[in-house]
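cron nightly-structures :: item 1 of 1
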Amino acid sequence: MRLCFLVEEQYRHDGMPLEVIHQLRAWGHRVDVLWPGRSLIRISEAIQAGSHDAWVLKTVSGGPGLTLLEAAASVGLTTVNDVRAIRGVRDKALAAVIARGKGLPVPVTYAAARPEEFAEIAEAEFPLVVKPADGSSGRAVRLVATPDRLLDPVEPGGAAGPDGAAGGLLIAQPYIPNSGTDLKVYSVAGELYATERCSPLHPAHAVRERQVPLTPEVARIAAEIGDVFGLDLYGVDILLGPDGPVVVDINDFPSFRQVPDAVARVSAAVLDLARNGARGREACGGEASIREGAQGAQGAQGAQDTQDTQGMQAAGRTGTAVPPSTAQAGAAAAPPSPFAAPSVPRPIRPAASIGGGR
């Protein structure tokens, strides 16, 4: 297969997706890499019907990669995730409206261009969690105890000042009392994994990041997120509040940290989605799909090497394909996870149900 990855500058040294790119090449597939934040792209030639089996995006919110992915979709190319689904979760204000409209447990959400406008919210709803509507990776998220603290500056390292992320929209949600531990649930094309980590609002709270079992209720919520937004590879931040689980963030193509054999599993899922179309398929078949990814590459062994060496140098890897027997052996050795929730078959949803039908 021939795939194109769009990788933003922020992820130029990130194992996800660079190790996935390396794995796919090792299995014998052809992978081109575009760097929308630091290179000239001749889009009229790069984006053509039939140029690739699928385009995959790893980008920051508001980054230029999403426009390129939309351009690929506009000429009929498969995108991973579905490009309409990505728009639906990149805007946190939009995501909150969509999720609450579908009955998912999401806090009441307020939006404003300037933080002082949140002073109109009843003081009884404070403390508030305030963050940029287009934020990512926990940057510029802050806990505001009382209305008079709304103009306090963001902590050092935050991506925004008191006026928000470069003047963009802000959202505010009532703080959900919790233990200081965030639950992150990852979906690899239907197979769910949960990890716990320290909350960005409680950095002093010592939490060892680790994989944990999923409860049926949390698994149901995480699977429903995929259905509602049309996502295949995604993560959901969930807090266990006094009234039960609450969804506080959704991310497309996250880091998949603590997912066992994440590189092989995500690589196999990308191949499945490229073959069958994002969301137009049943959930990933676990180990069998990983082996299929290696086995299906045998016919592509002799393909000309068109790898992006700059991308592999950044990843600290080479683009040399391994023999198929080696790839198969490594894939087959991936152990089943004791924490994985059963794969969740999902129906095809009409385009109108995804982010207002865009």
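cron nightly-structures :: done
The first helix runs from residue 15 to 26.
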